[in-house]
């Protein structure tokens, strides 16, 4: 085998190696692009869920405030009821 044939063979192998490297590089680039798109979608969904979580927290806080208000009203009503029962007994009645 002479030097020219050997040189041609090496150039051919180099071209095949470059083609394989280019092919694999493009596949990796495509995979990376898909992965970035997935991460972007996940981050958007996370932001939406955070917003929903904040809305739910606000709704729960409002509900808790209303429950507290109703319990305070109930306590006031119970005190008033007890006062009226005492008053009935003082007047000689049977509660």
Layout of SSEs?
Elements: H1 3-90
Describe this structure in words.
The protein is mainly α. It contains 1 helix and no strands.
Alpha-carbon distance between the termini? Answer: 123 Å
What's the number of helices? 1
Q: Which geometry do the CA atoms define?
A: rod-shaped
Give the SSE string. Answer: H
Estimate the helix proportion, in percent: over 70%
Question: Given the helix and strand composition, which structural class is it?
Answer: mainly alpha
How many β strands by DSSP? 0
Strand content: under 5%
Radius of gyration: 40 Å
Mean pLDDT: 91
Describe the main β-sheet briefly: none
Unreliable segments of 5+ consecutive residues: none
Brief summary of the model shown:
The chain has 95 residues and is an all-alpha fold. It has one helix at residues 3-90.
Features of the shown structure:
mainly alpha, 95 residues, 1 helix
